[in-house]
């Protein structure tokens, strides 16, 4: 197998020196195990956290360890009755071309039901994150205004569309003209804004004449500074991600904005609740599978994938993800 391992803990944006390519023989299979050939590797913002030793909700990847990640794989050898050669499965085998895994840690996918790549995006972890965070914490009501950034990504695009299914108005924020166009034309957001525009402040005000009832927090940074000034009384903020900060090495410049923000939390009776999607697995997986499969099938939730060819290109693609060079759910096509 060819692996990409964590060579060093990055400071700021990960560099090529933080990753090491290693080719290794895999051990023979033991009972209950399968040999997997990677088809797709999912690249996700949380992986930046795993590269860091800072305390978080999950253990970091050790230096010298294989970079983690969800994959879609084909079973090429099996010593388990659960999986047959030729099965396509969802696994967590990381940045490598082949892996040995416990068959119980794989989930069989039905390639006739949906493209298998969707198990890493709209029908997988990112789609579930949008569903759980928006419906459990955001609780959009008909006629309310929901704002989300990183809105062409797998989480944000699903948030905006689910909000509309629930009768709310969705305002999407993305970086650059092409993404902004896709928000209304492809994903059907009611309004789309460019956070890099010099008129973002005015554009946001014009787009939210009745204020904001749900801010699905995907990014933090300057977008959050602006959006949280337009929140309505009793607004909800599911805190899902802060990707604007993931490469940061110091606090943002300028005055401390926390006191002003906390004053709004108090006077507007805001609800802020962070979450890690896995906490909702036990309660919401079934309804998510049922609802999202139907929404995708009926064209109510559209999705976009950005597929990079070849494991060798994973580090560069991952760097791009953290600064917005991806356009849709970022996947690496590792094998056919
Ligand atoms: P995306 O594919 O949307 O990629 C991240 C996007 O963030 C970029 O494409 C870029 O889009 C945007 N971005 C980067 N920097 C900034 C910035 N400074 N200001 C504004 N936008 C920025 O990723 P996902 O959909 O996979 O993830 C979205 C968020 O959800 C992330 O924060 C992630 O960590 C979080 N997440 C949380 C989970 C949880 O359990 N809590 C689970 C899964 C994801 P653009 O070019 O449009 O600016």
Describe the protein's architecture and organization:
This protein has helices at residues 46-50, 125-138, 154-165, 177-185, 200-207, 221-227, 258-267, 281-297, 314-323, and strands at 2-6, 19-23, 33-42, 71-78, 88-91, 98-102, 107-108, 145-148, 169-174, 191-194, 212-216, 231-239, 271-274, 305-309, 329-333. It is α/β, with parallel strands linked by helices. It folds into 2 domains: 2-120 and 304-333, Quinone Oxidoreductase, Chain A, domain 1, CATH 3.90.180.10; 125-278, Rossmann fold. Helix 2 packs across helix 3 and helix 2 crosses helix 8 (281-297). It is globular. Residues 15-332 form the Enoyl reductase (ER) domain. This is NADPH-dependent curcumin reductase CurA. Keywords: Oxidoreductase.
The CATH architecture designation of the largest domain is 3-Layer(aba) Sandwich
Bound molecules: NADPH dihydro-nicotinamide-adenine-dinucleotide phosphate
Radius of gyration: 20 Å
Counted by DSSP, the helix tally is 9
Domain module count: 2
Q: Which fold name fills CATH's third level, the topology of the largest domain?
A: Rossmann fold
| The CATH homology group name of the largest domain | NAD(P)-binding Rossmann-like Domain
Kindly state the percentage of residues in helix.
Answer: 25-40%
Q: N- to C-terminal separation?
A: 15 Å
Beta strand count: 15
Report the structural category: alpha/beta
Shape: globular
At the first level of CATH, the class of the largest domain is: Alpha Beta
Q: Tell me the major beta sheet.
A: 7 strands, mixed
Mean pLDDT: 97
Spans where pLDDT lies below 50 across 5 or more residues: none
Residues in β-strands, percent: 15-25%
Order of helices and strands: EEEHEEEEHEHEHEHEHEHEHEHE
